[in-house]
């Protein structure tokens, strides 16, 4: 059911609990995207092969058919809607094909030929120009030779041209160079390079849109997370009056940075097809398109260099972050900022140097889950700490407790975080998992692990156990594109209906919000309604684009504000109606962060999580078996404990299914606990993705006595890594002799 509106203007934005793919219309046409088979080159023509018979009612639209602007501008980045000629990446949309039958559309797509411009070649590339000049490719059976030539040309181009840096962030505190040269303060120096390339793909509905015209108006149904951007893109691309565009936001699943802006492109293309054909058009991405272009993980490489004194205190940290952002990435600065904030984890260090950069490439635009951006940085720093423990002999628990920032201490200056009862959580996780004993036993077994033929069927399994920690910040104050304050408003109508004016939350959050109101006032559940005032006019007055819905605070912050509204409602008499209550985040909290200097308190609040993973490795099959996972989280006051526990369990299962390619791991013993707290509720949705992969990789590293520096792993990765280690050790021993 869609939310009702009082005025005609407000009815322009509706919300539905239905899927756009379940919606139908009379005379519905289907649409599919035609994508570039090349990652480089200039398109001179797009057309069907000469003998292709095009049935009536089928049409191909390219950039030449766009009546308005063929690009969207997101945070200063111009992105083409349909490729106008110069190809940015393989898979870039170049046309849209529309018709009634999906099978016929697939056949027609295979008959489309893309001709590349011959005159754009450089003389310096004459070795390949003769083959390249005659290239045209069929989407059905492109020649492997043609594709090989293009691939070789791309490789040469990438090596010959310097990478274009589109965003960077540098942080320097203290003097790391001086510390690394001081033998007393740097008695141990550990270096490591880490990559978390886990694709957390969704198996839910893919991105798409249903567009149709009714009574001179254009109606769009799509899971938009950035409503104003979607509407603006449609109006500017089609030239259709914005006041005649009505948008129904359908059920949302894919909360990635690519989903934010690509939804506007898909909606405008479907709208263009609907206006051109005069019929309803549904454009749905395939599962492969969803994974390759909406949910591709960012190729991020993080290098750590850490110095410790003889007591195990971290005296200096140097972190280098390289991010291949793909052809377009309007959120690259935001992603780098979040990675930089999490680069040193929970650890207190007075000498820090962080260098982060995002580079443009001919790869598809990379994407990050909005709740898992930090996970890349935590994977690196937690594995680095585990590596330090293995080299120095310090217990991973003691090492973390000695170097952890406590309370409101400054850690990784110039940042300030609050980790609540982090020390208690780490100790509790260690006790519940019997970590110290099991870690010591595994470590003692490491030394003779390769001295026996332990690959025999009767050899005992290799064991490993590891611990990881991370925080999750709610309400990042450094988002430059967020100008308006985060607010919540409750209104009471003459009919004593309680209206919550907010972007409709998930069903789980809606239940929490409903319970908060029911605890405050005596009313029936059916009297509580959720609506959303788009606020288009107020956005115009501020001369700014409305912010992405996914970035409007966090669920935890909105819950805090709703609780304050409910407390005020409790003190107010329901008879004095109608009235409204509005609460906002205090401006003083945001002033605690200086975005220009990149210093201060970056988050409204922070949750803390720690995790232990215990596993064993079969020495015959070289397959790992996870024995136990223990998770403890300090997320403030948990308003709905059972729902929160279920959400954490779902995240664990989702994470386990992605740690090994083409295989889903299982764990028979999973323990999840929340610390008792009366602090404000905190966001915890991304904690598992920040701690579980790191603990898993570190436990595997201990089991095979080799660093697992990249996830996901392949089924034969562990055997190959172990064999390489054994060969290297044998050669080292021979050299010594």
Explain what this protein looks like in three dimensions.
The protein is of the alpha+beta class and 737 residues long. It is built from 19 helices and 29 strands. The strands form seven sheets. An eight-stranded mixed beta sheet has the order 1-14-13-12-15-2-7-4, with helices on both faces. A six-stranded mixed beta sheet has the order 10-18-17-16-11-29. A four-stranded mixed beta sheet has the order 19-26-27-28, with helices on both faces. Helix 9 (375-392) packs parallel to helix 18 (687-704) and helix 17 (641-656) packs across helix 18 (687-704). It is globular and about 80 Å long. Residues 1-10, 121-135, 139-145, 450-454 and 535-545 have low confidence and may be disordered.
Question: What does this entry show, briefly?
Answer:
By secondary structure, the chain is of the alpha+beta class. The chain is 32% helix and 25% strand.
What order do the strands of the largest sheet run in, or round the barrel if closed?
A: 1-14-13-12-15-2-7-4
Query: Got a strand count?
Result: 29
Assign an overall shape.
Answer: globular
Summing up helix and strand content along with how strands pair, one would put the structural category as: alpha+beta
Amino-to-carboxy terminus distance: 78 Å
What proportion of the residues form beta strands (DSSP E)?
A: 25-35%
Uncertain segments are: 1-10, 121-135, 139-145, 450-454, 535-545
**Biggest pleated-sheet summary:** 8 strands, mixed
**Rg on CA atoms, Å:** 28 Å
Average predicted confidence as pLDDT: 85
Helix content: 25-40%
